[in-house]
Amino acid sequence: MSICKETQAPHKRATDLRGQVTGRALVIGVVTIVAMALYMSYFGRNLVKNYMPVAVVLPFVVWLGVNAALKLFVRRWALSRTEMLTVFFMVWLVGNLPGIGWAMYMVTDIAAPAHYAAPENRVREVVMPHFPHWLFPEESAVVIGQLFTGVQTGRAIPWFAWGQPLFWWLMACLSLVGAVFFASVIFYKQWHEKERLVFPMATFPVDMLRQSEGNRMPDMLQNKGFWMGFGFVAGIIGWNIIGYFALSLPPITLFYSTAHKAVPLGHHFPDYFLRVQPMIMGLAYLCPLDILFSFWFYDFVNILKQGVLNRTGFTVGLSGQPAMGGEITMLESHGALVFLVGWSVWVARRHLRETLQKAFHAGREADDGTPVSYRTAWLGLLSSAVFLGGWMVSAGMRIPVMLVQLLLLFICFFAIAKYAATTGFIFLSPAGGKGAGVLMALGGTSNLPPATQTSLWLVNSNALCGVPIRMTCIPSVTHFFRMLGNHLRRHPLIWGCIPLAYVTGFTASVGTQLYRCYTEGGLNGHLALWDWGVLLGRVSLIEGSKQTVFDPQKLGVWLFGVVEAGVLTYLKARVSWWSFHPAAIALPVGRYGFCLLLVWLMKTTVIQFGGVSLYRRSLPFWYGAIVGYLFGIGVSKTVDMIWFPDGGHGVHGW
In whole angstroms, what is the distance from residue 161 CA to residue 481 CA? Predict the structure, then answer.
């Protein structure tokens, strides 16, 4: 339906939307989020670690089965397609928050300094005076001590002591989520209509829910190819589950984690991982061939590059602050990332100008921003940035550094949102993360006051929404717009579910984590000390006993990455046979290059011999593989809950 026709029939449009996006869907979404957070906090340690984690898709598959049964037996209770997608999105938005996805780090980051501070590490003298008190709980034996050792018998959990710090962390996280939402409104039509990105992570749930007229079951559940893929993957996991009881039964290790798949390439060279992961492969099968090959090829080249640099001892940087192989490749990749984001914004310049004209100059009827107006989107993005910037300054960061940090956050999150929509790869890891490592490597620390360095650690820690590779709130928003399709329009239920879902997920996840720490003792595996280790490594820098300065050599490596991405972008646009995509340099795939190689080989073979028609007929097999993998994980976790509650078995991991 065109925009003009929609404008002529507002009553019909609102009635149709009320029949699709409903309060019932929001209630079910909230209940599902709480159930997901509880389950993942207790039983799903490794199910929350990417852009579309098992913690999100497993509840979707469960609801898919429940809804299919409702359509067969109690049709009036069945959820509509858009209601199912709304529930799926709400869970997806917060899918990384429970357990080790975010909550374990969050609780640890704001409690560990008070607990582990000692004369040997000098954290109390050097770092803690610069901590803003409103971001940390009361330092006492009751609040901090019992978090690590467990609450004393007969004592109540000190919930009230966590109210203030958690509120202000929630406000910072919500400002980030708000910025992501408003930026998604601004860029969505550019990506969807003009650049025609694939949005693979939206294609899977939409295809799973597609239903022909007259059928009560989704078409995919009636496809033989789907059940072949399901049977193949679920059968392997089912065989291994039988082995939990029949110990002499040899396991099938095809889907085992990277801990079992490492192939040493030699001293100083990173390992190569022969990882086979059905969920990654099923979604990557929707990715264009040139991108699949580029990601695998550069991943292998990067391994060789790091190995040679480490083997030869080659370093870059001024005396006393050398960059080894890993940091060199990070700076190169971040330079490429900056170019790609800048180029993407430049390509969208006409669209951005149109959105500004519609927001502030044209009449209201011309402002077709969805699901809020472009005026709301631009003002909302500005307000979110101002609030987050003010939060950083209040935490001790200097204003110039705050502006650079905001820019680095935009670069990181923009790249995640766009290239998740381009590739469907659920483990994209933007080089340089949130940016503090790049800022300090290039500019040094001599001009950064202790309070600024401390606040940089706070912003770049997991406490602020998590690390980029696990921030499901970033790619989920544009994918939700794509999933809604014709039902995407201006309505409060579409944007209102975002703060509702995030506040629910935040509260349920951190509340469950605090409860486990106080009742079972945080030291019994309920805390994550990664960020604490990073802080210890910066004590001498914050103190000033060790300083780094602006490094032109490292800047040269960074600029090389910028030029490299620029040349590859030019070749990609101007040379018809050139197939290498520059995003592969900026977004390393880590341990999953082999996965993408397998998918590239299989998809190339299918298209070569059967064309597009065979490719489309082969899709149900991969969807079945995804669902079979999720089904196997669900069955395995259920078996562990009943028969092996103290140990369990690893089915899904890195």
Answer: 39
Candidates 165, 166, 173, 160; CA nearest to 131 is 165
Q: What is the CA radius of gyration of the chain?
A: 25
Phi-psi region of 325 (alpha: psi -120 to 50; beta: other; left: phi over 0): alpha
Contacts of 228 by beta carbon, 8 Å cutoff, 6+ apart: 621, 624
- Alpha helices per DSSP H over 517-544: 530-537, 539-543
Q: What's the predicted TM-score (pTM) here? A: 0.93
Residue found under tokens 């032109």:
552
Beta-bridge mates of residue 272: 263
**Tens digits of per-residue pLDDT, 225-278?**
999 999 999 999 999 999 999 999 999 999 998 888 999 998 889 999 999 999
Q: What are phi and psi of 329, to 5 degrees?
A: -65, -30
Nearest to 133 by CA among 454, 399, 442: 454
Q: How far apart are CA 179 and CA 181, in angstroms?
A: 5
Q: Coil, strand, or helix at residue 143?
A: helix
> What residues pair up with 316 in beta bridges, in sequence order?
323
Q: Do 63 and 87 meet the contact criterion of CB atoms below 8 Å apart? A: yes
For 163, counting Cβ atoms within 10 Å of its Cβ (0-12 exposed, 13-18 middle, 19+ buried), the class is exposed
Q: Which residues contact 154 (CB under 8 A, 6 or more apart)?
A: none
Collapse the DSSP code of 358 into the 3-class scheme (helix H, G, I; strand E, B; otherwise coil) and give the result.
helix
* Torsion of the alpha carbons at 115, 120, 121 and 124, rounded to the nearest 10: 60
Instruction: Say how far apart CA 467 and CA 306 lie, in whole Å.
Output: 23
- Cα separations in angstroms, 115 against 120, 127, 130, 459, 520: 13, 13, 17, 21, 17
Q: What are phi and psi of 95, to 5 degrees?
A: -65, -20
What are the residues whose beta carbons fall under 8 Å from the beta carbon of 498, sequence distance 6 or more? 93, 177, 181, 477
Cα dihedral 303→306→311→317 (10° resolution)? 180
Q: Measure the CA–CA gap between 260 and 412, rounded to whole angstroms.
A: 31
For the segment 20-79, what is each residue's pLDDT rounded down to a tens digit?
A: 678 999 999 999 999 999 999 998 878 998 899 999 999 999 999 999 999 989 988 999
